[in-house]
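User: quick one, fold this
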Amino acid sequence: MIYLDHAATTHPLESAKAAVLRSFEVFGNPSSAHKAGILAEKELTASRQALAKVVGANPGEIIFTSSGTEGNNLVFSGCVRKHKGRRIITTKAEHPSLLKPLQALEGMDVFYLPLSQGGAICQTALKDALSEPTCLVSIHHVHNETGVIQDIAAIGRIIKETSPDTLFHVDAAQSFCKIPINVNDAKIDLLTTSAHKIGGLRGSGFLYLRGGIHCASALVGGGQEFGLRSGTENMTGIMAFAAAAENFQQIDDGSKSAFLGNLDLEGVVVNGEHTSPYILNVSVEGVRPEVLLNALSEEGICISAGAACSANKKQKAAASAVLTAYGLGSKRAETAVRLSFAHSNTLEEMTQAARAFTQIVTSLRKVRG
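Assistant:
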């Protein structure tokens, strides 16, 4: 099998697997005062420190969650609800875990920033939008479908120079460990991540919450996670997350270039500009994404038609709302597929995948006539 859907989820790294086994030995409750609890609390603290270091945060600003989705929901339920009548600035290309809780908020003025056809936000529009009282700007760092990298340092600078009290949230699920990010340099107040995007386990993530920012509790009870998320911590997931972050190996554009270089097809266009080396989004003229995905899957090659969390295996792939937001037109939006890479992918796999892609697309076009 050639797995090219790492933006959906990744193979657990060997270091993460080792941390899972070690977590079974550190079985105590981190809140307990006895020796077993103290040992678990030390592991929890070490994991918090390791993850905070990646983004330049203080360990006390890391709140462990079950996922990036929970973190994004907590941003809105915990930090935004009290600001009724004030503006939230975002884009229509954000992840569903951000857009759906945003839609559930009442009494908020939501402003959607325009995007270029390359996927970049309009910084002038951002500055203009901040002229109204604004409680939050929420922007992804790396887009999960197209891989477009937003200039979050420039965005953060504009926000704090124009409206210093406005909070800046960054969804870093696709950039954490992959693209350098420092919460202080980029003026970020809130940042969300997910462990399984970097070789950790599904069911673990964290919310960075800058010190001094008030956030209502997501879960009440024993007061774990600084009172924001009560419940005994998922030590297995947390320890594996930290181990994956400490041992993550970055890649360059080699996989993407090798795949594209071995394609022998017309009518294939790359979507997005200034993109991450981990994600490639292409529109394939004359071929339905779900048909292409199924045919490639039969050959043991795994790609996707967009965000896995919004896909439905029983329905045909919908036009990409993201590419529609980029203004790329219905044909490109309806024929887009995503390939996403990791350090484990080899150049030989890229050659094999590109050749199979070429052969299958050619055959599907012939059938369609």
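User: anything notable?
Assistant: The two ends are 30 Å apart (CA to CA).
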